[in-house]
Design a protein that fits this description.
Keywords: Cell outer membrane, Membrane, Receptor, Signal, TonB box, Transmembrane, Transmembrane beta strand, Transport. It is built from nine helices and 50 strands. With 1003 residues, it is mainly beta. The protein has a 22-stranded antiparallel β-barrel. Strands 10-15-16-13-14 form a five-stranded mixed beta sheet.
Length: 1003
């Protein structure tokens, strides 16, 4: 009997175990606090890897291991919710509540993070989903139009990075771009970051935010945060796109019939050696046939556990330029691992990125562009026998297609960034961080101009550099000419800082103090050239086969004698944040920098800042109002510096070669001073004051910020002409100028419509900036208070300059002849210095101020629409109030030379007898304002597809759909960076219109 009882007990126990273990199908919907479905919410069965993601309607369905399982439901920005199945119910409606901590958006600042609501400084943040879509491998273009006060300009050249200027130009040095910090590593080359790996970008604008980076922060700081693994889930993601590009616009040049008719009308004719009866569109001739193709692929894996996480990705991008032979490709491998130890008090992070890039450049690119618009349409690309058409009897007339196909210009780079970070939690609220980073950039560059180029030596072949550089005469040796260089740049940084965070009743204190050591070694390598090669097909790959010794007068080019540089920077820094009742906020920081690049008398600089904020919405008198849910007033002041844009040995005395002199029957090398020492060379110092308001109204429907700033740079470093009696070399790099930028920035964000099936969110940013050079002197300077510059040297324009550096005027101030129409003989006339009219103006004497290249204001307007599973993004960008000097148009407005060089269609009414028609003057200064539909993306989210695909989205993007402008050039988005903004000088790489198809998959 007892055995029977035991058997029955075992039977029923086994039955109950089997019943308990039986899997149960569970379904439901996940909603927010307003009852709106949450797509892509995560539903996880506790203690297992069993997980599912909600579809677009917030619905989910999966098999739980048993009917009493515990589910954990999570969604970014909301509190996790734990749900225990009750054993009988199989369908659930789960409502998540907002996570107040997540709503307090975290912003990355120097050596720490902070809540956006408690910031006392001006910081703009852009999340990954809001970055620009397109064939983009450049962070500048990702941010174009997205941040108030950030002026980004780019061309269609895939091998050239965009120019980025924040809150106006701050220096006369070439370095105008902001300082990048990636995952806490300062000074990272931003090209190593794959766009798909970015989580957020924080732009630090005012000095109170940037002063913690001292002498590197005068142009602003951009903090980039990349992806990390999560312990909540492991996933594999893949994204790709394929793009097709076409030139969006061309210059309206005369075709063969139009030009032939113009010459006949004016009793002119082509030279027989040029007129071969062709009708060639030379702008098309240099373009790649059909479309320029692009593709990108990104594969990432991430995950983690309770004591660590990992993220790894590999990215590949390949982008063809629209010009023949122009291509860019890059492979980026990235790995980030974090591990916790000692009861999670120690966190160790390893972050490694390696970027390998190949740039196939257009040989003599700017000359190719110039020749393509100057060439006569009656000249063919090739002769009947297949050889390239050339007319070497005409000076400066070279076949641009032949130039491309008879030369190579390639650059390979390998960029490695590695960092080791440690964070140790200590008693009493202290945290200690020790970070080490190492960056190494290796560049291998080669150029080869084959034996065909030898013919150009007799034709006055000048290069065509970007302004403000001046053209120089080129020589391509004999039987081919090769150049090869290999350089390495390394950057080593060790940073150590201690953070103390304490709450004492209503008082919150956070203090940071640290030390930074940095050493940079630049240009560690060599360069050499050779000529007289036996064959052309080896290109630049074997310089040893050349024989320069047999070519009379040829000199090997060993590169810049000052290429190698070593710089060291040592810094001490500290910051204190004080918070009283989350109502009154105060921040102060100071950094002491010591740099080897400056004079021995001024190698240390101090960069303090202070900021305060008042959260007005926290006051008692705001309790009953219904308008504001957030209202904060903030003000800040600080100093930053600039230590870039000049050589590491700029302040030191340097001797070098001064040619040769005749002595004792032979030419002997002469050596002497080539650079003057300046022991007093000091930091450029930029002081910024900022007042801002942050607000949220209408229960969160509308939020935004308004900032007003005043930024002044003093002691600008520039190479000034000096009296040779005082300084033998006739110039000295010294502090001597001041510059101001004053402006207003407005950013607005709104979600006017949000229903179950449809939503519309929009953001608008506007910025205004006024730049002015307020001082341009130093004790040695002999040039008064102005410097004429930017000399494109177009045909017949020798000595003509376009811009001036002048006290009381902005950087990019145009200074040229003032066009006054035509006189009664039909000859162009100009306003002389004394106000009279003249047909024989004097260069530099009869010049007048003629507007600024800097825009008065910038605008970006972003719109996101969703309807069920469809999403649509429309982004407009605008630049207003700037002038462009269209030197390209001037050079194509020479009717007197139309028999040897093409002209614009709208020059048809010009008389060849007017030899003044083309002179650089206000006639060719145009309004550069434009509005561009920069990006339109339509996507469809399939949600979860099958067992293994958690999310699948496909999309189509069109870039540069249209532009509204009065500018007559190829495109109004000319260079806005550097020290010669707003000049279109026969060097504009045409912008493109791109059609792109892509997908995103999460497994």
């Amino acid at each position: 009997m007892e055995k029977l009882k035991l058997l029955l007990l075992a039977f029923f126990f086994g039955l109950s175990i089997n019943t308990w273990a039986q899997k149960t199908e569970v379904s439901g919907v996940v909603l927010d606090e307003k009852g709106i479905p949450l797509p892509a919410a995560n539903v996880l069965e506790k203690g297992t890897t069993n997980t599912v993601t909600t579809d677009f309607d917030g619905k989910f369905k999966f098999l739980a291991s048993n009917k009493y399982a515990i589910l954990i439901v999570s969604f970014i920005g909301f509190e996790d919710q734990t749900l225990k199945l009750d054993g009988s119910k199989t369908n659930y409606s789960i409502k998540l509540l907002p996570n107040t901590m997540n709503l307090e958006q975290v912003v990355v600042v120097g050596y720490g993070k902070g809540s956006r609501k408690n910031l006392t400084t001006a910081v703009s943040s852009v999340k990954a989903d809001d970055l620009n879509n397109g064939v983009i491998a450049d962070v500048g273009q990702l941010l174009q139009g997205k941040v108030a006060g950030l002026n980004v300009s780019s061309s269609g050249d895939p091998t050239k990075a965009a120019s980025v200027v924040l809150r106006g130009a701050s220096t006369l040095n070439s370095s105008q771009g902001p300082f990048y910090v990636v995952d806490g590593i300062p000074g990272v080359d931003i090209s190593v970051i794959a766009p798909e790996d970015i989580v957020t970008i924080d732009v630090l604008k005012d000095a109170a935010a940037t002063a913690i980076y001292g002498n590197r922060a005068a142009n602003g700081v951009i903090m980039v945060t990349t992806k990390r693994g999560s312990k909540e889930k492991s996933q594999i993601s893949y994204s790709n796109y394929f793009g097709f590009e076409k030139v969006s616009n061309q210059l309206d040049l005369m075709n063969a019939d139009q030009l032939r008719s113009f010459l006949a009308k004016n009793n002119m004719s082509f030279a027989p050696e040029n007129d071969k009866g062709a009708d060639t569109n030379w702008q098309d001739a240099i373009l790649r046939p059909g479309y320029a193709n692009s593709q990108s692929h990104n594969l990432s894996m991430s995950g983690g556990g309770d004591h660590g996480n990992y993220f790894g990705s590999i990215s590949y991008i390949d982008k063809e330029g629209v010009l023949q032979g122009n291509n860019f490709s890059r492979v980026i491998a990235h790995l980030a691992v974090e591990q916790l130890a000692f009861d999670d008090n120690l966190k160790i992070g390893v972050n490694v990125t390696n970027s390998n890039s190949l740039y196939n450049n257009v040989p003599q690119r700017n000359v190719v562009l110039q020749q393509s618009i100057n060439h006569l349409p009656v000249s063919p690309v090739t002769n009947p026998d297949g050889s390239y058409f050339e007319n070497f009897n005409q000076t400066g007339y070279f076949n641009p297609v032949a130039m491309i196909n008879h030369a190579d210009d390639d650059t390979k780079t390998n960029n490695f960034v590695g960092s080791l970070t440690t964070e140790l939690k200590l008693p009493w609220g202290f945290t200690y961080n020790l970070n080490f980073s190492y960056q190494q950039l290796n560049s291998l560059h080669g150029e080869y101009y084959d034996s065909y180029y030898q013919q150009y030596n007799s034709g006055n072949f000048y290069n065509n550099p970007d302004p403000p550089l001046v053209k120089t005469l080129m020589n391509f040796g004999v039987n081919g000419s090769a150049l090869r260089n290999s350089y390495q740049t390394t950057n080593t940084i060790v940073e150590s800082f201690l953070t103390w965070e304490k709450t004492l009743g209503n008082h919150k204190i956070k203090a940071v103090g640290g030390y930074s050591w940095q050493q940079d070694v630049l240009g560690d390598g060599f360069q050499a050239t050779n000529t007289n090669f036996p064959v052309d097909n080896i290109s630049y790959n074997n310089l040893a086969l050349g024989n320069y010794g047999s070519v009379s007068g040829y000199k090997v080019d060993f590169g810049d004698s000052r290429a190698y540089q070593k710089k060291r920077l040592i810094s001490y820094f500290g910051r204190l944040n004080y918070n009283y009742k989350d109502k009154y906020l105060l921040q102060g920081s100071i950094r002491k920098d010591g740099g080897s690049v400056f004079g021995t008398n001024n190698q240390w600089g101090y960069f303090p800042s202070v900021g305060g904020a008042w959260r007005i919405d926290k006051e008692g008198f705001m309790a009953d109002q219904k308008i504001f849910t957030d209202l904060k007033l903030r003000a800040s002041w600080g100093k930053t510096g600039n230590s870039s844009g000049f050589n590491a040995y700029t302040a030191q005395f340097i001797s070098g070669s001064l040619g040769t002199f005749y002595y004792n029957g032979q030419q002997v090398g002469a050596y002497g001073p080539v650079q003057a020492a300046n022991p007093d060379l000091n930091w450029e110092v930029t002081t910024t004051g900022n007042i801002g308001v942050d607000f949220t109204v209408l229960k969160g429907i509308l939020s935004g910020s308004v900032d007003v700033y005043n930024k002044k740079t003093s002691g600008m470093i520039y190479s000034y002409s000096v009296n040779p009696v005082l300084v033998p070399v006739g110039s000295i790099v010294a502090n001597g100028g001041d510059m101001t930028n004053k402006g207003v920035e407005i950013a607005l964000n709104s979600t006017p419509i949000k229903t179950k099936n449809f939503s519309w969110s929009t953001s608008l940013n506007y910025s205004n900036n006024k730049n002015e050079i307020t001082k341009l002197t130093n004790p040695y300077f002999i040039g008064g208070d102005s410097i004429r510059r930017v000399q494109p040297d177009g045909g017949g324009q020798t000595g003509s300059t376009l811009q001036i550096l002048k006290e009381g005027k902005p950087l990019g101030q145009f200074f040229t002849l003032q066009y006054a129409g035509k006189n009664d003989q039909g000859v162009s006339q100009y306003v002389a210095k004394d106000g009279s009219l003249t047909t024989n103006p004097q260069i530099g004497v009869d010049y007048h101020y003629a507007g600024s290249a800097q825009p008065k204001f910038l605008m970006g307007w972003n719109n996101n629409f969703t309807y069920k599973k469809f999403d649509l993004n429309i982004f407009f960008r605008g630049v207003f109030g700037n002038k462009i000097f269209n030197a390209t148009r001037a050079d194509l407005f020479r009717p007197s030379t139309a028999m040897s060089s093409n002209i614009l269609v709208d020059a048809a009414n010009e008389s060849p007898n007017d030899l003044n028609a083309y002179k650089y003057s206000t006639r060719f200064i145009e309004d550069g304002s434009y509005i561009r539909l920069d990006n339109m993306t339509l996507g469809y989210d399939f949600g979860s597809v099958g067992k293994y695909i958690k999310k699948l989205r496909i999309y189509e993007t069109v870039n540069n759909l249209f532009v509204i402008t009065k500018y007559t050039g190829i495109d109004p988005e000319v260079e806005q960076g550097g020290t010669a903004p707003g000049v279109d000088s026969n060097n504009f790489y045409p912008k493109t219109r791109t059609f792109l198809f892509g997908l995103n998959v999460i497994f």
